[in-house]
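Can anyone check this?
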Amino acid sequence: MPVERFFDTNILLYGYDLDAPAKRLIAKALIEEAWRHPGRTAISVQVLQELQVNFVRKGHAPDEAATVIADFAVWPVIGNTLALFRLGLSLQARWQLSLWDAMILAAAKTSGARELITEDLSHGQDYGGVRAIDPFREVS
């Protein structure tokens, strides 16, 4: 069964970011909602990789990062495959995105999500069936 939404890395990171309290509140609410409705929100291996790197970069211990990753890994996770990479390349060319943003979009499309929750793409833009939603657009 396809999921309803896909979270980009920044949503998970802001859930732990003490330096951005307004964004943290929004991210925590989104994450808590995802936990209340198992199976409705997907992520990808790329999201988990980026989460680990940035979580540790922000001063968290690697073992704490590993615990956080293990928790989120129970959600629907889209794996890195050659087919996903090829889709990402086509989306990169079509939408003039960075490769990393195109790979997130490819994973969201692969998951069946209709919404990609991210601050990295144009809010409201429909990318071929996946609409980018920036939950932080009102936060200054």
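Reply from J.R.: I decoded it. The first helix runs from residue 9 to 14.
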